[in-house]
Design a protein that fits this description.
The protein has 631 residues and is α+β, with helices and mostly antiparallel strands. The protein has 13 helices and 32 strands. A six-stranded antiparallel sheet has the order 17-28-29-32-30-31, with helices on one face. Strands 18, 19, 20, 22, 25 and 27 form a six-stranded antiparallel sheet that branches. Strands 21-26-23-24 form a four-stranded antiparallel sheet, with no helix packed on it. Strand 30 and strand 31 form a beta hairpin. The longest helix has 21 residues.
Length: 631
């Protein structure tokens, strides 16, 4: 489920040799273990439902949505929404299409990777359950009650409502499962594969009618053009459909599916934003209604573009995936790890498997040796390299816990989404034994946030809601500035980029702020943006990079305003950011020049495109690139 529903190689081989730890082995010697996912899985015989059918007869495979840890250490399977014991129903339901689809992908990949018949049977059962949820219009009902009754309108309401009345995340994930299902079954069970093909074509028809009808049209969001043909205006949702379409097209999918794949991939690629020193640092933005929101959950855009690039034979699609994985991901990791949301400040510092897995899959899918080294740092989150300092994956049971809070507390529930994405990560690591298995307590020297309202001067304003409709005020408030304000900054031994997060407005007379540290002027910002367009809020919270870096040792920053400016926070980014994990170190650069750093060992220095630049005895970090050093 979406996390908003419930809170809470040479180089790589060398890295493994230098910094790997011994992890507890399962009986099979694999990291992947389907035991807890099997616990969540069940079967149901739904009542006859007009417009809904599936392949064959007999009970359908489904999956419980949540698993809450009990006081005795056991787990209780539950559904979503308020439970009514008298009717044995939930406000939402017991089982949902989102998780059934993604669990089917786990079993399909497990079957293809290890050849285990039990996984093939489980995948088949879940795909039968998933296709029962598909309506005749090609869309998908999200929720099912414990007795198999469909619940098209959930409480609380989720859009679209009814859930099969339009495009949705669950339609995108259904396409993912059907595409991988067809690719897996086409030689093992031709009749079932043809059924999956027909249902996938039905889904593609719905996407053509409801989404791709806008192909070639562009929306405007605060002056920036964004593609109008993304599923629910999301590159995140669209990326999951692209994973399925890529699998289908590679194994003989239709010309219509190939065209849909190419168009969706083009839309995702257009969401690439920023540069080496400009927010969001070459990330692929997930939401087509905001230029100020990056979230980790569902951000499968780089792995989807890598898959589409391969299926379509288009190297052009790989470039934005490289930017996201070689540019943004190392910066994210050195800033504190795979946080859930930069909105645009790193406000949601919860870390969950859904986001971690997306980072890991992208790095491995793009596949360059240096990115596999970075993948080792991401994967280490599961093995204790996180803010809690505790493993979030239990290899002996197959449980992945429901995340780590920003203050380092593990949520020891283990619902379907966390379990699914934990297993997708473990399958990927089992398939890539060259990726090191790192663990240990991470230390960071990266992005820091200084709140706007911590300044001396100006007026602190607390709006009724921190959420603007497209972004979020850091710490729930901002500084209103009409004269001058000064911030005291944490010290640093190196230069830093300064990115004030300011509210840009569409105005003919915008405010201007000039920024100085001591006698040095760092830059001037004109607080203006383009037309609001489809954005939910006037104005845009944007980090704006000042022209000059803050000098090493500087501890004050002063802004002088002409007009009325709104300042949310300051982002301070060292020219070289660092993540240390055991004897391995990851460094990444926002500098315009190569920098030799006093970290010695076997250093693998990579360019901004993830290509190996050099192997040296000391880190020589390339502009916009990253370096892995082995002690």
């Amino acid at each position: 489920m979406n996390p908003t529903r419930r809170t809470v190689l040479g180089g790589a081989v060398a890295l493994a040799a230098a910094s790997a730890v011994t992890l507890p082995a399962s009986a099979s010697g694999r990291l992947s273990n389907l035991a807890h996912l099997n616990f969540l899985r069940t079967s149901v015989t739904p009542p006859a439902t007009a417009g809904h059918s599936t392949f064959g007869s007999g009970p359908l495979g489904v999956l419980w949505t949540y698993a809450d840890r009990q006081s005795d250490g056991s787990y209780k399977r539950i559904g979503g929404g308020t439970y009514d014991a008298a009717t044995n129903t939930y406000g939402q339901g017991a089982f949902n299409a989102d998780d059934i689809a993604r669990a089917a992908v786990v079993y399909l990949r497990h079957w293809r990777q290890f050849g285990e018949r039990g996984s093939m049977v489980a995948a088949r059962d879940l795909l039968r359950g998933l296709t029962f949820l598909q309506s005749g219009n090609g869309n998908v009902v999200l929720w099912m009650q414990p007795d198999g009754t469909l619940n098209p309108s959930a409480d609380p309401v989720e859009l679209p409502d009814p859930s099969d009345s339009g495009p949705s995340y669950w339609l995108a994930r259904t396409v993912w499962a059907l595409g991988e299902g067809y690719a897996a079954f086409r030689t093992a069970d031709r009749a079932f594969a043809e059924f999956l093909r027909a249902r996938l074509e039905l889904a593609v028809s719905a996407l053509e009618r409801q989404v791709l009808v806008r192909y070639g049209q562009w929306n405007v969001v605060d002056g920036r053009r964004v593609p109008a043909w993304l599923i629910v205006n999301g590159a995140d949702a669209t990326s999951e459909a692209v994973l399925g379409l890529s699998a289908y097209v590679r194994t003989g999918g239709s010309a219509r599916a190939r065209r849909a794949l190419a168009q969706f991939a083009e839309g995702i690629a257009a969401m690439s934003a920023g540069s080496r020193a400009v927010w969001p640092f070459r990330a692929l933005l997930p939401w087509g209604e905001s230029i100020s929101d990056w979230h980790a959950w569902g951000a499968q855009m780089p792995s989807a573009l890598a898959a589409a690039s391969s299926a379509l034979g288009s190297r052009r699609l790989l470039a934005p995936a490289i930017g996201d994985t070689a540019g943004f991901t190392p910066l994210l990791m050195t800033a504190g790890g795979p946080d859930n949301g930069w909105l645009p400040a790193p406000i949601d510092r919860t870390q969950i498997a859904y986001g971690v897995d997306a980072r890991l899959q992208g790095l491995l899918a793009v596949g360059r040796p240096g990115l596999k080294q970075v993948a080792a740092f991401v994967a280490a989150w599961y093995f204790g390299a996180n803010k809690a300092g505790e493993p979030t994956y239990d290899q002996t049971t197959g449980r992945t816990y429901d995340g780590v809070s920003g203050d380092g507390v593990v949520n020891r529930n283990s619902g379907a989404e966390s379990t699914i994405h934990g297993q997708l990560s473990m399958l990927a690591l089992d398939a890539h034994p060259e990726v090191a298995r790192l663990a240990g307590h991470p230390t960071y020297d990266g992005l820091q946030v200084v709140e706007g309202e911590s300044a001396v001067g100006g007026e602190v304003v607390t709006p009724p809601s921190a959420w603007t409709g497209e972004s979020q005020w850091s710490n729930g408030s901002y500084l209103s500035l009409t004269a001058a304000a000064t911030w005291t900054l944490p010290p640093s031994s190196q230069g830093r980029l300064v990115l004030p997060i300011v509210n840009l407005v569409n105005s003919s007379s915008p405010a201007r702020t000039t920024w100085r540290s001591g006698s040095r002027t760092l830059g001037t910002i004109t607080h203006v943006t383009g037309p609001q367009g489809i954005s939910a809020a006037p104005g845009a919270l944007q980090p704006v990079t000042l022209a000059a870096a803050l000098p090493a040792g500087a501890t004050t920053l002063t802004a002088t305003a002409r007009g009325s400016a709104q300042i949310d926070a300051l982002l301070l980014i060292p020219l070289i950011s660092t993540l240390r994990l055991g004897s391995a170190t990851l460094l990444t650069s926002v500098d315009s020049h190569p920098r030799r750093v006093g970290v010695r060992g076997r250093a693998y220095n990579y360019t901004a495109s993830g290509e190996l630049h050099s192997r040296t005895g000391q880190a020589e970090v390339q502009p916009g690139g990253f370096t892995v050093v082995l002690g």
